Structure formats: structure tokens, C-alpha cells
């Protein structure tokens, strides 16, 4: 059993007869009244996101997890196939287990969290950023750069990202997987 002081991003807990992963949290100490922790929880089984507030010192039932490296192989409808980089065993996961499936490129190495009790996969953690090639975007018009102007671009995985006007088709860009946002042009 853990308490609210142990809450951190990525912690898996049992809550409302399901297993949730904490995606955001904020410790709040108001001037009046007791402290509390405001959290955003994502169900690892359904992908449903809910917000919950725990009072300070509240006991939470944490789930012991183990992380393993897997390589993303290919998609098949809403099912994604991965291969263990150590023993080459393959597993299939549903789209709900992934935070940003549209940023996942074939061959990418990800971290998968497993419940140590029943060895079931809980969620997939992508790297902090990925480098993808822009496959389609409108050309930027010179003189159209008043303040941080952006335009939509489609990358090789099919995801649509807002990029600065100077990005062209064929450019490789670095994308933040947590926010799904453009970071910078990739260095060749």
C-alpha cells in the first residue's frame, strides 16, 4: 500500500475495480483546509481518462510493474504487434494501450509495462521524442511569418502535426510524443 505522497507520473494503481496509470498529478496545499492531490488517471484496459482528487495521506493500492523493451513490428487494424528485443517473443496489444499510436514508426523500440502478478501488458511508453519525415505539407509563403505562424503537415506514420512555415516535404522533424507537437528540425 502506498499513500498520496508516493504519487508520480506513470504509477499504476488499482482504483474502482480497474487498473489506472497516473498521467498527471498536482499536490495542492490550500490556505484553509487539508492538502490534497489532484490526478488524471488513464485506464489501461479501456483507455478511458478520468480525473480524481485524493485527500492527503489517502492510501492507494499500487500495482507492481516490470518494464521490458519491445520493438514495434506492424499494425493490423486496431491491433499492434511488438517483439521482445531479448528473447524475440511477439505480443499483440490493442490501440487503447498506446498513448500516441499515430506517432509509432515500424522498427521503433518502446517500453512496455507488465503487471508482475499476472504478467499482463498494461501500457506502452514511447520514447520522449521521435524523428519522422514530412510526407505532405503546403509550401510556406514568403513574408507570411508575422508571429510563430504554423501550418499542418502529415508525417510518414499518417499523423498530422502543426509545423513552422519553413518546413517542407521530405524534411525530417523531431516530435514530442507526450504532446504530439513539433520540437525542431532533425539534424542530419
From TrEMBL:
It comes from the Bacteria. GO terms for molecular function: translation elongation factor activity. Residues 130-185 form the Elongation factor P C-terminal domain. The keyword Acyltransferase does not apply. Pathway: Protein biosynthesis; polypeptide chain elongation. Residues 67-122 form the Translation elongation factor P/YeiP central domain. Keywords: Cytoplasm, Elongation factor, Protein biosynthesis. It is found in: Cytoplasm. InterPro entries: Elong-fact-P_C (IPR015365), NA-bd_OB-fold (IPR012340), Rib_uL2_dom2 (IPR014722), Transl_elong_fac_P/YeiP (IPR020599), Transl_elong_KOW-like (IPR013185), Transl_elong_P/YeiP_cen (IPR001059), Transl_elong_P/YeiP_CS (IPR013852), Transl_elongation_fac_P (IPR011768). GO terms for cellular component: cytosol. GO terms for biological process: peptide biosynthetic process. Its main location: cytoplasm. The keyword Amino-acid biosynthesis does not apply. Involved in peptide bond synthesis. Stimulates efficient translation and peptide-bond synthesis on native or reconstituted 70S ribosomes in vitro. Probably functions indirectly by altering the affinity of the ribosome for aminoacyl-tRNA, thus increasing their reactivity as acceptors for peptidyl transferase. Belongs to the elongation factor P family. HAMAP family: EF_P. This is Elongation factor P. It comes from Galbibacter marinus. The gene is efp.
Amino acid at each position: 500500500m502506498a499513500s498520496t505522497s508516493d504519487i508520480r507520473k506513470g504509477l499504476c494503481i488499482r482504483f474502482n475495480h480497474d487498473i489506472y496509470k497516473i498521467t498527471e498529478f498536482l499536490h495542492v496545499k490550500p490556505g484553509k483546509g487539508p492538502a490534497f492531490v489532484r490526478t488524471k488517471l488513464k485506464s489501461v484496459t479501456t483507455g478511458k481518462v478520468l480525473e480524481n482528487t485524493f485527500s492527503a495521506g489517502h492510501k492507494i493500492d499500487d500495482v507492481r510493474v516490470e518494464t521490458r523493451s519491445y520493438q514495434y513490428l506492424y499494425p493490423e487494424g486496431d491491433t499492434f504487434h511488438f517483439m521482445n528485443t531479448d528473447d524475440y517473443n511477439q505480443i499483440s496489444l490493442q490501440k487503447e494501450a498506446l498513448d500516441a499510436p499515430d506517432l509509432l514508426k515500424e522498427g521503433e523500440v518502446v517500453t512496455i509495462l507488465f503487471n508482475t502478478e499476472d504478467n499482463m501488458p498494461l501500457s506502452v511508453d514511447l520514447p520522449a521524442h521521435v524523428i519522422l519525415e514530412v510526407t505532405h505539407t503546403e509550401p510556406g509563403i514568403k513574408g507570411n511569418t508575422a508571429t510563430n505562424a504554423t501550418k499542418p503537415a502529415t508525417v510518414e506514420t499518417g499523423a498530422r502535426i502543426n509545423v513552422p512555415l519553413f518546413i517542407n516535404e521530405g524534411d525530417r522533424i523531431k516530435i514530442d510524443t507526450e504532446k504530439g507537437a513539433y520540437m525542431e528540425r532533425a539534424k542530419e
